[in-house]
Amino acid sequence: MPSPWTCLNPRRNQFVLGPKTWNLSASLFKAVRINERFTLRINMDFFNVLNMPGITMPAANGILPNQLSNNEPRNLQMTMRLQW
């Protein structure tokens, strides 16, 4: 007799994201040639561009707390790289 656990869906342990729990990241770069040998590359990375706060999942009692955000805040990272 087969085990009763073999009929379960293999994706049964996957979770579904709640409402507005997604974010968008973007990146820009510009390469500037200084002379024949040196190039300066400027990068700007934006994390959570749209700054969607997201809604936390309800607790066991069914209450949605509005004090906390489910997503990270908007971040900007700027870097420069000198190539030779």
Overview of the structural elements:
This protein has about 80 residues and is mostly beta strands. It has a domain at about 15-55 and about 70-84. Helices cover about 0% and strands about 30% of the residues. A hairpin with a 5-residue loop joins strand 1 (about 25-35) and strand 2 (about 40-45). The mean pLDDT is about 80.
Short description:
This protein has no helices and three strands. With 84 residues, the protein is mostly beta strands.
Keywords:
three-stranded antiparallel β-sheet, 84 residues, mainly beta
Q: What is the topological layout?
A:
Elements: E1 26-33, E2 39-47, E3 75-83
Antiparallel strand pairs: 1-2, 2-3
Describe the main β-sheet briefly. 3 strands, antiparallel
What integer value in Å does the Rg equal? 23 Å
The chain-level structural class is mainly beta
Q: What is the β-strand count?
A: 3
Strand order, biggest sheet? 1-2-3
Shape estimate: elongated
String of helices and strands: EEE
Unreliable segments of 5+ consecutive residues: none
Distance between the termini: 69 Å
Task: Give the overall pLDDT as a whole number.
Answer: 79
Put simply, the count of helices is 0
Helix content: under 10%
- Strand portion: 25-35%
